[in-house]
Amino acid sequence: QQLWAHSTEKDPFIGLSETELSKVLNSGIEKINGGLLAPQVQPVDINPDSPTLSRWSVVCNGPGIEELMTRFASNAALDVRWARSADSPSTELGAVSLSNRNAKTESKPANSGWNRSVTLYLPAATPQQVATTAAGAAGFLAKLDDVNTVIIITDPAEYYALSEHTRMLNEHAIWLWRKLLLMYGDDKRIPNAHFALGVLHDQRGQINEAAAEYKLIANRYSQTPLAPFALLRSSRLKMKLQDYIGASRDLKQLIEQYPDNELIGQAHLNMAETTMKAGYYDQACSLYKKAYTLGFSPEAKTVAALGAGKCFYQLNDYESAIKWLTLYLEANGAQQPSANTPAVAGLKDGADLYTAYLLLGKSHMALGNLQQACEALGRTVKKANASDEYVEAITSLVETQIKQKDLVGALSTIQNIRAWPFSQEQTTQLLLLKSNVLRELGLTDQASTLLADRVQYLTDSKLKADLTLELARCQIATEKFDTARIYLAEVLSLVEAGPVAHTASLELAEVCLKLKDYRQTISICTQLLDSSASKQIKQQASKTLAAAYSSQKDYDKAAMALLTMPAAKVSKKSDNITNADNK
Q1: DSSP characters over 298-365
Q2: What would the pLDDT profile of 47-92 be if each residue is shown by its tens digit?
Q3: How many Cα neighbours within 13 Å face the side chain of 282?
Q4: Coil vs helix vs strand at 205
Q5: What is the pTM of this model?
Q6: CA-CA distances (angstroms) from residue 100 to 81, 110, 147, 151, 481?
Q7: How far apart are CA 179 and CA 21, in angstroms?
């Protein structure tokens, strides 16, 4: 209400006595009673060069809308089209095609609700004004077609599909707002009209048009209360388009021009989010920390803490990530999990809480705090609200339990999985996880049976390759190297060159080494060293190649294979230390 500019026109009825008010109200009865028996339609100013600018006098007091439009169409040489949305989804606005182009009107739809009575007095109006005003008085929508020869009348209460209904209303609303802009360019409510157009374009998915309307308000009407709201909406739309630079400009403009506005806290948070999504995590951390320190509201501090935790996690600064994620959980009524801390009652659920616990668990896992990681990830599983979240949480928890050597706990976690509508890919991922745990427990035959029952029904080559690779590992674990060799060869036939193919090739080389097929081992390792495989794969391939040469008593080539082994990847932390020493 405060953002809408109101007209300053004086109410003409203020200060009138009851007698004077009665006289005013009765003054037009004689004129409107002229249309009591039948609608009166008379030309006032006919413009033969531009009929749409002609003026008409229309008086109607009781007759139905059909009779009025028939009379007006006959006099103005127009056609009338009664749209039937529920019957004709294929035609524009559900319009019924005219069966006789010589007729000035067509039969209205067979619905008694269409012929509603109309009370109307227009002393001088254009055909468009007559059509929209008369139809509006009966609760309908009306407009002239593109060539200004047909009046299309639609009942907004009748529709065959909600999407079509909202589209029609949206189009009509946009048309009315544009008409207001053209006719009343100096009105104080023009910024509101542009804002309404922005909202309507956004509803239709026309993001560029909506953002343009909002930017027009911010640049041309910067002194209106709507300007900061327009900038905030414009930035959000640009974030949808992944135009993070444009979104940052809008937010920066909002922060600099309206530092005392109620939206300033949200603007700081959005600026930090935009920077984070653009991949500038260092800058995003600073912005989130600033928003937290400024403390615009408790809710803003909570969002800032979570954002800072996400950014520090992406920067691999796990200690700082734990600090900020803990602040977020404490602000939410939660707390950092520990062995002696029970779950807090009344904890707020949601995607953000799930994310916080997941990142907290992964941060602890990266630092080697396996117990804290398990407790955080255990809560993550309970907070998952979608199948992809649930699979991610289960996978992280089981991997942590395996590192903790809690294989029984890992198996229990997998066997107690909730019933979800998992996709084929997710089901395969969980099956691989279970097989890995069973192999670690020494239950390799059981794992092989599970995989063999599943792999024969898969049609996706990638998923089939993943399961076949796990089957090969089960055979290797039980020293069935001939069978493992067959499975690994099948994997290579299912996948293209890439990480999976490189891993399968390396494991095939090691199996061939076990089978004393040294020539095949040397061939595979040589191909791997010449490929685009990772350094870790190439290092292992060099070791396997050296072992093959040593088994053939070719020690010179074995030494050469070890000497030409790719160097280990230096960590970022080591790089920094080295650079500091050099300085």
Answers
A1: HHHHHHHHHHHHHHHHHTT-HHHHHHHHHHHHHHTT-----TT-PPPTTPPPSHHHHHHHHHHHHHHH
A2: 777 777 889 999 998 888 888 988 998 888 888 888 754 443 333 4
A3: 0
A4: coil
A5: 0.65
A6: 12, 18, 18, 15, 85
A7: 33
